[in-house]
TrEMBL record, chain A:
The electron transfer flavoprotein serves as a specific electron acceptor for other dehydrogenases. It transfers the electrons to the main respiratory chain via ETF-ubiquinone oxidoreductase (ETF dehydrogenase). SMART domains: ETF. Residues 24-214 form the Electron transfer flavoprotein alpha/beta-subunit N-terminal domain. It comes from the Bacteria. Keywords: Electron transport, Transport. Heterodimer of an alpha and a beta subunit. Its cofactor is FAD. Belongs to the ETF beta-subunit/FixA family. This is Electron transfer flavoprotein subunit beta.
């Protein structure tokens, strides 16, 4: 039996760029180049490792996003995923996380899977709730925020390092997993991988294919409303001194003046 | 008055400080009530504390499920109470688990979700949340336009203020839905005796410039002299010098203390995303060109192994 692994990824504006908002208060995707969210590379990596350990496995990478989001899929394919699904529809623009989870859940059901793997959060919205929402919608166990993950005999196991404790988790497949940036360094695509990725299949789906009404998603279907977005005033640089033997004392004087000590 | 439901986070039988902040914020929106889940015998003292901070009612539910299953039992409980009581909003602490619980509750209630609020005010159409986004370069104000608002709030977003209320305990029998991951074992994190990173008023962090695990001793000594929490940059954590639980940055903890001291940290975007909203920022770095100096209120260009011990001694002498 082929172990079918689906990895959900997001195409995001480069976090090192000057990110901002478009006129309709959605994320500006024009001003800054996009790429595969760095945190999703960990999801792709763990999916590939699980696939390598399995007798027979297939890794499908899925995204919801505009035309350029194909770049994120190509990156994942060049890392070693087998095929890709791209949900793309003009009416998706402005969809919030609740709506995105509805679209992804339908796309996952259509594609078929034994295991869904996600990154811990996107680097743009940084909510970190999509995996939990998918588990809720698909009515599956959520095994999330894992810094270690493995699949054996139809059971997914992993370690979740929380604030107060570290927990060992397990759940039978099918299940929804998310992995953190502690789960293991993501591989770089090889030249061979990059060439092979060009020939791998990318299935295109729109909202009709998934049986979703346009008014359930998009800005209009969003259950949250962004009222304003304002650039934070840049911090003004304060005093900079060069240590000439009394740097610690000068710093102490500053902290004292500010009443910290 | 509108009932505002607050999920009270607790550990080792005690209320965690962010829950008191939530109760304080909830009073701006209506009348707070608290939800205490899986606290065992500590439930009574936790409920009393919630009452002290303004909870008129404290819903208490217990059961082995809360410890044995991940996230879902809390979702079951919170959804059930929110529906039965017809509350006006649900507030949860922004932690990894808190956000997951809130998200599933929102979906079950058919509600919009806002995460990581740093400020909360009453608006004409329900609560207005302020978020700090894109590595804290933007401030966004949002509201929920569908259903009962479910909002997670970051620790340190408000100073907890006591406002004694009835704190009447109401026991709740939760109908658990199951289908959760099983928690096979749990290892409590060993306490360092230092304040919790996200809750501390002062944070002292070390980065690549610390050079080795042993190098963190000077960072810890300074932190202890200030009663501060210790943080680390991703570079220091990836190098194995300090635990991941202390990582400050986009993929670690986001902190917003009164005072943040960065030692040997260059200030890459990954790090700035986790500390840029700190009230006062101080940096010590050998490299005068380090981007961290663009953010600071006070910076010292110098060797942290000289500057930090001298500062620690100065503090000790006061």
């Amino acid at each position: 039996m082929t172990l079918k692994i689906a990895v959900c990824v997001k195409y995001v504006p480069d976090a090192t760029g000057d990110r901002g908002f478009a006129d309709d208060l959605t994320t500006d995707r024009e001003a800054v180049d996009g790429l595969l969210s760095e945190l999703d590379e960990y999801g792709v990596e763990q999916a590939l490792r699980i696939a390598e350990e399995a007798d027979d496995a297939e890794v499908t990478v899925i995204t919801v996003g505009p035309d350029d989001a194909k770049d994120a899929l190509r990156k994942a394919l060049s890392m070693g995923a087998d095929k890709a699904v791209h949900v793309n529809d003009e009416d998706i623009h402005g969809t919030d996380v609740i709506g995105t989870s509805a679209i992804l859940a339908k796309a996952l059901e259509k594609t078929g899977f034994d295991l869904v793997v996600c990154g811990m959060a996107s680097t743009d919205g940084t909510m970190g709730v999509l995996p939990a929402l998918l588990a809720e919608r698909l009515n599956l166990p959520q095994v999330t925020l894992l810094s270690e993950v493995s699949v054996e005999d139809g059971v997914v196991k992993g370690r979740r390092d929380g604030d107060a404790a570290s927990e060992q988790l397990e759940a039978p497949l099918p299940a929804v997993v998310s992995v953190t940036d502690q789960s293991g360094e993501a591989r770089y695509p090889s030249f061979k991988g990059i060439m092979a990725a060009k020939k791998k299949p990318v299935e295109e789906l729109d909202l009709d294919d998934l049986g979703i009404d346009a008014d359930e998603v998009g800005l209009g279907g969003s259950w949250t409303l962004v009222e304003s977005a304002a650039a934070r005033p840049a911090r003004t640089q304060g005093t900079i001194v060069t240590d000439e033997g009394d740097g610690g004392k000068q710093l102490a004087a500053f902290l004292s003046e500010q009443k910290f000590i | 008055m509108a009932e505002i439901l607050v999920l009270v986070d607790h550990a080792d039988g005690a209320v965690r400080k962010p829950a008191l902040e939530l109760l304080t914020l909830a009073r701006r929106l209506g009348e707070p009530s608290a939800v205490v889940l899986g606290a065992g015998e500590a439930a009574a003292s936790i409920a009393a504390k919630a009452g002290e901070y303004g909870a008129a009612t404290v819903y208490v539910a217990d059961g082995a499920e809360f410890a044995e299953q991940l996230v879902v039992p809390k979702v079951d409980a919170l959804t059930q109470i929110a529906k039965d009581k017809g509350v006006a909003a649900v507030l949860v602490t922004s932690s990894g688990e808190g956000k997951e619980v809130a998200a599933r509750v929102a979906l079950r209630l058919g509600s919009g979700l806002i995460t990581d609020a740093v400020e909360l005010e009453a608006g004409e159409n329900g609560p207005v949340a302020t978020q700090s986004v894109f590595a804290a370069s933007y401030q966004v104000k949002s509201s929920v336009s569908h259903g009962v608002p479910v909002i997670t709030v970051k620790p340190n977003s408000a100073a907890p203020e006591a406002a004694p209320a009835a704190g009447a305990v109401e026991d709740v029998a939760v109908a658990f839905t199951g289908n959760a991951a099983k928690v096979v074992s749990r290892t409590a994190r060993v306490s360092t005796g230092r304040p919790e990173l996200t809750e501390s008023a002062i944070v002292v962090s070390g980065g690549r410039g610390v050079g080795a695990a042993e190098g963190f001793e000077v960072v810890e000594k300074l932190a202890d002299s200030l009663g501060a929490a210790v943080g680390a940059s991703r570079a220091a954590v990836d190098a194995g010098w300090y635990p991941h639980s202390n990582q400050v940055g986009q993929t670690g903890k986001q902190v917003s203390p009164q005072l943040y001291i960065a030692a040997g940290i260059s200030g890459a975007i990954q790090h700035r995303a986790g500390m840029q909203t700190s009230k006062t920022i101080v940096a010590v770095n050998k490299d005068p060109e380090a981007p961290i100096f663009d953010l600071v209120d006070y910076g010292v260009v110098g060797d942290l192994f000289e500057v930090l011990p001298q500062l620690t001694d100065e503090i000790g002498a006061r």
